[in-house]
Amino acid sequence: MTKRIFRSIVLVSGLVLLIGLGFMLAVFRQYFDGQLQKELKQEASYLSLAVEEGGTDALKNLSSQSERVTLIQEDGTVLFDNKADPSTMENHKDREEIQQAIQNGYGEATRLSSTLGEETVYYAVKLEDGTILRVSTTQYTVISIVLGMLQPVLWIVVLLLILAGIFASRASKAIVEPLNKLDLDNPDLNEPYEEVAPLLGKIGHQQRTIRRQLKDARRQQEEFAMITGHMEEGLLMIDKQTDLLSWNPSALRLLGSKEAKAERSVLSLNRTEPFQKVVETALSGSRAETLLPVNGRFCRISANPVFDEEAVKGAVLLLVDVTESMERENLRREFTANVSHELKTPLTSISGFAEILQGGLVQPKDIQKFAGRIFDEAQRLIVLVSDVIKISQLDEGNVPYESETVDLGEMAKTILDRLSPEAEKNHISLQLEGTAQIQTVKPILEEVLYNLCDNAVKYNRKDGKVTVSIRQGEDSLILSVSDTGIGIPAGDQPRIFERFYRVDKSHSKEIGGTGLGLSIVKHGAAYLGAALSLESFPNEGSTFTLRFPMPLEKADNSAQKEQAQ
Fold first, then answer.
1. pLDDT over 50 (residue 137)
2. Does pTM top 0.70 for this prediction?
């Protein structure tokens, strides 16, 4: 700032000096021109009187060193000139001052001479006899004056610039010194120039705002660190260059890393290809998820990009230890596979016994009895294998069916008709309410609905009732199956969808079944994207409800219809 003020003062001083010199030269030139014209007029007046009284002889005594005097006839012929031979001079009638003198009695003119840097001033007066007396002299032009005075002017300019530099240096230091002594930590306590007071006020306001924001930021950082520090899940925040911005201890534990440093690449915590790929996908603007094995455990990583307007600024990675759930899932799949494999052996044996019976190795009176038992067990085992296979297919998402439009009312009526003979044995009434169409996988939905209705009939009371209800909600299609049966205790309700789980084993054994019906319902509903819920009270009955989300367009149309009604 001091240098800028110094340069400004010196520059202004130099410009003022140059402009001042220019004005002085112009004023002096104008003054000298006026004086020169006045002198020429006086001299021309004196000489004209002398010529009129004494003729041209009065001019012969003029010195060649004095101003130039020329006597010219009215036709432009030069009669006398004290500087040159009149006979060698050209006609002067076309000269400006001569023309003016002929017309007005006197004339003035200024012309550059052949001498570099000089100009000639002429004054002509018309005498009584018609002749014209002209007096002229030379003077220096502004350029010639400046060139003549160049050396002393330069010395003066240099001296003035030096003085301006000295004073400018002192003045700039004196101006800046109070600013350098400002206490910016306490701007309100300064007493500087009045012009600086608004700036100091703004600085004070900004400092108070910054201190408040820093305090809030520290508090939020402490709260964030406290929350994330107690999280079981790992949390990583990275910027666009994959450098770490924030993390919690769980993230390091799950990734098997001992320490992390800010502004260090997150890829240094785990250099496996799946981890690197999920980070790259998130930073490219897409959500990514992967299952990462670390030190014998499994960590599920969900990476979400962070946007600032439309640009990706970083990503947030959430790490969850899914080892236990993975182990449970593996056990379930292994159990299902083992059951499917093991049950094929007894089926083969039962079929073998049936062949022996058919071969006549059993007494005739016992053949029908044994054959019936073998057949019933075989059918039961076949159903069990079929159910286990269905659950395995739903687990793997390997269902060989396509989505289609299904009439729920027609499907429910068909299922109730199939269960009607069993219901009539215990005088159970079957009722269907409502109908609707839905885009879904028909075989899976049919299996889910059949299992719900079958259970409602099996676990009902005599003279009971089973109701299948189909209705339209605000944003979903609701399918419910209600019964007036024995109900399910509250303590057993969270487990009834587990495979082979039975509330009352003795009662279930009498009724039969594989114990996989509700598990098929659970997995089938999940596959179809339906929310499954249960409401049951002992000795009152149970209600199983499936909620199928409607497409957004259909949901909007339904809402408009309800408003219209």
1. yes
2. no
